[in-house]
Amino acid sequence: MTLPAASAGGRPGRRLRVVHCVGFYFPDSTGGTEVYVRDLVTALSAHAIDNTIIAATDGAYDRYTWNGVEVVRYPIDAPEIQKVRDRSVRKRRTMFQELVESARPDLFHLHSWTSGAGLRHLRQVARMDIPSVVTMHVPSPICMRGTMLLNDEKPCDGLIDDRRCAECWALDRGLPAPAAYLLSRLPRWDVSDSVISRVSQRAATLLSARAAAATKARQLRSMATLSERIVAPSEWVRAALAENAIPPEKIVVSGQSASAEFSDRKQRPLEGAGRREIVIGFLGRLERYKGADMLVRALELLPADLPVQLRIAGIGQDARFAKRMERAAQKDTRIQLMGLVKHEKVPEFLADIDVLAVPSRYMETGPIVVQEARALGIPVMGADLGGISERVHHGVDGWLLPFDDPRPWAEAIRVAATDRAEVARLSGNMRRTRSIDDVADDMATLYRDIMANRPALAELGR
């Protein structure tokens, strides 16, 4: 979809109010979605748009200011008590609706697809006649695995087919290939409590795989019906939505950007500040799907005296994965586990590496860290998947490598460690192409376009 000029929509000069809803937020969570929302609401203020952030929490209701913007937290399991008794369902208000209504928004922008901020909340806002926008920051609205890798072997086109998805998901749950295939051919069962009482919970879940895939397809259609637009951060997201017959006019492609703070930093020295070794950095969650172990496996294929240091920053919830990484670092002094790097320290971490490695085993919708590296002139070694392959140009400003084979990664690391001129060349080509102001321009234009097509609401001045 092509957006009209940013001045379209609403009355001239009228400020818009937007509620941004997320499943997690600062200070207890600092992922890519949270960073995107924080930066977006700050940049939107230049477009006469006032913003409120409402975010789910495991704790109690809370209200505070973060980065100059009001944040309201609501419990994930908050009871949906009807606050207004009325014969008309559309006039009743749940606790979540009361929270949204108190911000008096013109629009509602959903940035998550979780139990705390997802389809249930989108439906409640729709009943309030407030137009909604959804940004698809993760693959989970389409993929049961959450990775968009078909059978963990190749990128998926995203079409939700209940048989294909059931087989792929069963393989991810550890079933042998023949059993996964047979399960995908079973009838589409919605497993009842009576069935669960006769079989294990795991078996019941597997038996309902086809029904779960069909439910995901219905939920995606509901997302499209309830929202005015779906924002796709990458072209592959747009294509996957189109595969599921989401109308093209509903989809807006708008890429992410590094934070404004990265704009003020000088490009790093191309010769590595006189260090003997080349420093390769990883920044992300220590989980299998982020692929930090790929770098360890690649390093094992290289000579022990290769002048390279691998800095791995991040934490995760997979204790076994973390233990494997710790054992690898104990065996190889070239591997340094940095632990959690606080978000405000990310520019400092990136500024002290020569190459950023992004070996993800799933289809990233971004990631923002690639844009951050681009802003600092740091070449990227990335998995040839999803948003990474849309942002890194092989042989021009980095390397695009297989997500499932450590040997090409080992060769790329060898080149980086032994050919400083090549790293310098790639670094010189890694230039910033998008700013947070560009993202805000996209969203401000989108919001006003939506309001221009809702004249009744625009005149009411909601």
Write the layout of secondary structure elements.
Layout: E1 16-22, H1 32-44, E2 49-57, E3 62-66, E4 69-75, H2 95-102, E5 107-110, H3 119-126, E6 132-135, E7 149-150, E8 154-155, H4 162-172, H5 177-184, H6 193-196, H7 201-207, H8 209-226, E9 229-232, H9 235-243, E10 251-253, E11 278-283, H10 292-300, E12 308-313, H11 319-331, E13 335-339, H12 346-351, E14 355-358, H13 368-376, E15 380-383, H14 386-391, E16 398-401, H15 406-418, H16 420-429, H17 436-452, H18 455-460
Parallel strand pairs: 1-2, 1-5, 2-4, 5-6, 6-9, 9-10, 11-12, 11-14, 12-13, 14-15, 15-16
Antiparallel strand pairs: 3-4, 7-8
Helix pairs in contact: 1-17, 3-8, 4-5, 4-8, 10-15
Description:
The structure is a single chain. Helix 1 packs across helix 17 (436-452) and helix 3 (119-126) runs parallel beside helix 8. The strands form 3 sheets. An 8-stranded mixed beta sheet has the order 3-4-2-1-5-6-9-10, sandwiched between helices. A 6-stranded parallel beta sheet has the order 13-12-11-14-15-16, sandwiched between helices. Strands 7-8 form a two-stranded antiparallel sheet. Helix content is 38%, strand content 16%. Helix 1 links the parallel strand 1 (16-22) and strand 2. The model is unreliable at 2-12 and 457-462 (pLDDT under 50). It is globular. It is of the alpha/beta class and 462 residues long. It has helices at 32-44, 95-102, 119-126, 162-172, 177-184, 193-196, 201-207, 209-226, 235-243, 292-300, 319-331, 346-351, 368-376, 386-391, 406-418, 420-429, 436-452, 455-460; strands spanning 16-22, 49-57, 62-66, 69-75, 107-110, 132-135, 149-150, 154-155, 229-232, 251-253, 278-283, 308-313, 335-339, 355-358, 380-383, 398-401. InterPro entries: Glyco_trans_1 (IPR001296), Glyco_trans_4-like_N (IPR028098), Glycosyltransferase_grp1 (IPR050194). Residues 31-253 form the Glycosyltransferase subfamily 4-like N-terminal domain.
